[in-house]
Amino acid sequence: MPKKIRLGILGGGGDSLIGILHRVAAQINDNYELVGAVFSSNFEKNKAFAQALNMPLERIYEDFKMFVEEEMKLPESERIRVCAVLTPNYLHHQMALELFEKGFHVICEKPLTTSLEKAKALQKAHKKAGTVFALTHTYTGYPMVRQMREMIKSGALGKIHKVDVVYYQGWVNTVIHDEDKRSSVWRLDPEKAGISSCMGDIGVHAFNMLEYTTGLKVKSVLSDFNFLYQDNTMDLDGTVLIRLGDYAKGVVRASQIATGEENGLAISIYGEKAAFRWEQEKPNFLYLLSDSLPTQVYKPGHTYNSELSLDGTKLPAGHPEGIFDAMANIYKGVAKAVRGQKYNDGEFPTMLDGVRGMNFIEATVASHRGGNVWVDLE
């Protein structure tokens, strides 16, 4: 087996859901060794968290600047090769840019940046660096999402007519109705989160899922947002009509105030011959619908699935796999790319997906602010 890839993590300390998701995912396929980090901007908390993980402290750095400086002093054979950026949105650009300049490979949380302009700057820097970059649209790692993508590519649905993607959560309800609480959450702070909360956090996942599975590109959007309170400048709920072509339309529905909802991402894709339906909370079931035949159910681990789907399946059929496994499949694809091995272009979202996501976020905000008008994507 190839030597493990040295991994560094920026952010994701404490009780961060994203932090544990990345750490576990990096370990699942035995491709990475976590050797250095800046888990927190508070150095004492940073060290305490590292000790809780039983990590040596000599490569637990005080801040990002020290992380880069000290790692660059090491010989290439010892230096961290891949850095995972798990910080709030406003830090992604600065960190990724410097990491590219120093030759690190980067795995970054979404959205890519806080603006399309910064996303394009990162795209340019990444092209110059020639390193591997992955954006963690985690749900693309599910075997049945990958199966859907491959079957659509092979023509299983025929010409696509309609796409309906929904991503409903209810967690913002716990803070939004209290003025003090809503001013203390970074995702509701435009200085840290960017111009959008709901579309920037979960709507962009729905957008990416749509383009990833169908292979189509969204051409224009028309959006309507809900903010709930006058002093809240960040969208909490939104409906976005989309145009994929002259005769292919769709809708993206996203909400952080959908009371009682947990992590309700689901997609339905309707074509001239058949349709697909998949739900993130029931990820092992992919439904193929037809006007003339009984509904078919595809499940992971069976030989009838595509190579891409099977490569992302770790257990025999009938054994549930979940979000840790989905994220692990992205890390696995990055490992192949870093090692120069052959990989499918659907194994991890790229810089282009990040730029497309920022284009979507800005277009939806512009559409709402413009009075619910159609806005073209680049």
UniProtKB/TrEMBL annotation:
Residues forming coiled coils: none
Pfam families associated with the record: GFO_IDH_MocA (PF01408), GFO_IDH_MocA_C3 (PF22725)
Residues covered by the GFO/IDH/MocA-like oxidoreductase domain: 145-276
Molecular function as annotated in GO: nucleotide binding
Domain of life, per lineage: Bacteria
InterPro entries, per database record: Gfo/Idh/MocA-like_OxRdtase_N, Gfo/Idh/MocA_oxidoreduct, GFO_IDH_MocA-like_dom, NAD(P)-bd_dom_sf
Domain Gfo/Idh/MocA-like oxidoreductase N-terminal: start-end pairs: 6-135
The protein's name in its UniProt record: Gfo/Idh/MocA family oxidoreductase
Organism per entry: Maribacter luteus
Organism taxonomic ancestry: Bacteria, Pseudomonadati, Bacteroidota, Flavobacteriia, Flavobacteriales
